[in-house]
Amino acid sequence: MDLGPLNICEEMTILHGGFLLAEQLFRPKALAELTKSDWERVGRPIVEALREISSAAAHSQPFAWKKKALIIIWAKVLQPHPVTPSDTETRWQEDLFFSVGNMIPTINHTVLFELLKSLEASGLFIQLLMALPTTIRHAELERFLEHVTVDTSSEDVAFFLDVWWEMMKTTPRRCLQPCIWTNWPP
Question: Phi and psi of 153, rounded to 5°?
Answer without folding.
Answer: -115, 170
